[in-house]
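User: My advisor, Dr. K., asked me to get a structural model of this assembly before our group meeting. I'm new to this, so sorry if the format is off. These are the inputs:
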Amino acid sequence: MSTPKTLFDKVWDAHVIRQVKDGPDVLFIDRHFIHEVTSPVAFLGLEGRGATVLYPDRTFATADHNTPTLNQHLPVADPMSANQLAALERNAKTYGISHWGLGHIKNGIVHVVGPENGITLPGMTIVCGDSHTSTHGAFGAIAFGIGTSEVEMVLATQCIMQPKPKKMRITVNGKPGKAVLPKDVILYIISQTSASGATGYFVEYAGEVFENMTMEGRMTVCNMTIEMGARGGMIAPDQTTLDYLKGRELSPKGEQWDKLVPYWESLKTDEGATFDLDLTFDAADIEPQITYGTNPGLGTGVTHQIPTADSVKDGSASYKKSLQYMGFQENESMIGKPVDFVFLGSCTNGRIEDFRAFASIVKGRQKADNITAWLVPGSHIVEKQIQEEGILDILTQAGFELRQPGCSACLAMNEDKVPAGKYAVSTSNRNFEGRQGPGARTLLASPLVAAAAAVTGVVTDPREFLN
Amino acid sequence: MAYDKFTILRSSAVPMPIENVDTDQIIPARFLKATERKGFGDNLFRDWRYNNDNSPKADFVLNDPTYSGKILVGGKNFGSGSSREHAAWAIYDYGFRCVVSSFFADIFQANSINVGILPVRVSPEFLEKIFAAIEADPKTELEVNLPAQTITLLATGESESFAINEYKKHNLTNGYDDIDYLLSMKEEIGAFAETRPF
Ligand code: SF4
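Assistant: The format is fine. Below is the predicted structure of the whole assembly, which you can bring to the meeting.
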């Protein structure tokens, strides 16, 4: 019998064209996503060396990082953004790359539109010049973020040179409690491993919790895997994966689909395969989470107190600096902390299930007066679902507005910036200093925790609103 | 960025018998703001090379016409400190193609090869011999043979071999960077792409 392999090994090994002696592996890339911010310099480099795009049909372009979320039909006001958007459009046209620009019905955040249109498939290698490319790992793909020089590399050669990372398995068994969403599961894991605990690893998630999770939930988990330092995360494809993919616009159809199913079903870790590190958690220990510091590892259960400096791994000097930035003290309770902004969106939590969860709490209630809320769908397709399912009516009646798709306040490159010193409960993925605007203070949480804050104006346990 | 192929280099050398030459000395941080790769050679060893009023410091080796050549011979732990790729650019743009030392900082070594400079690590004894030979005759020539992985003092024929990763050697002898390497595999990539099910 051949040696047992992990899911990661199976997909990686199937893409190695050449193993460079004492060097990296040459890995074939099935799908490449590009956006307006990290691609222009790569195209310049390509032109500089007289190269061309080798397989234009393996690259997909969407505009998302610095697009406005209001009045998208008007010309983009910021000249830098407008330039980048124009460059993306021009480059896509020159090289024959599909381009879903601003206003296109399929436009949206790159990691939302890829899966929802069936571009992302199990067993693929997928890269993009954005670190949260790990999202696509939810389908049993190897997906990771790359730098601009590597974007040029993939455009020119459809390959990338990478040393093989170490392997980690994270198993979570049991049943998550009330109001515990996939976002809480991953925030909990990161709080346990720390923001650097998986550096150098590629993570596979296993166990009941992930088996029972929807594809959207799995995407949330894989998306944030990189926040513990990992290269990416992945989950073995199963019936849930196939049901999600079947019939999507660009998913394989008919005979091609039938041929792929047995291959996809083989994509799981063999009995006896080994990992460099195996971690196990119990779902019963996870409650709705919230972060209180300036990296995603500094989070805790929403009803807990802020830990003392001596109980954290990060080193007390940086921990104290972090709390100071946030305006928090050790031992304080998170419940009741004032909130100014609520952001529902991003490639972490900007999908339909996230809007359904948010609506389940705000339904029949009113937005708190002190709250400015930015509800930003991940794509036009999500926006349409929000309308069709009646969620838009619920949101409007509760005093909320819906904005247009884009990355928005996740990285605050457009106008959606949280002012200095203000607190935002955000469903995005990073709470670094200044991430949501200079001086902005971010509390990462699930759509339910965000909704509870939006209607009460303070940090609130969402379980109070659910029976 | 393209650079010239490296196979056999025969040249006199510039001696810099100083240990721990760090990248801040090679190219000071204030020269990193450029957005293009231009003019770094002029600022190589800027603060060792020039006074505050931009007049050359006569006693610095790069300002001494006695010494010239495409090989820079440095003391132990050459290229330590910050990981800036600009340090290697500056050395290359100035005109050096090879740096010899008894020990290199890791990242500097990797950066050098990527931009087309061959770092040659020799034994401390051989390094001393090179310094002594240059002192005796500043025009003495060294031969660095990449295919054979040897460095030779031509006057005496004394020689030592050096190590280099096969992949990096291939790149340097062909004048390739990583993208060029992949471009040279186009047929193999094309054949592989045919086998992909999606
Ligand atoms: S939503 Fe945020 S993390 Fe996601 S692609 Fe946009 S900027 Fe990156």
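One thing worth pointing out at the meeting: DSSP finds 16 helices and 18 strands in chain A.

User: Perfect, thanks a lot.
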